[in-house]
Amino acid sequence: MDRIKIGQIVNVVGLKGELKVYHYSDYKERFEELSKVFLENTPYIISGVRYMKDTVILKLHGIDDRSEAEKHKGEDIYIGKEDLRILPEDTYYIFDLIGLSIIDEEGRALGTLSDVIKNSAQDIFEVERENHKKFLIPAVEEFILDIDMKNRIMRVKLIEGLL
Question: Does the pTM of the predicted model rise above 0.85?
Answer without folding.
Answer: no
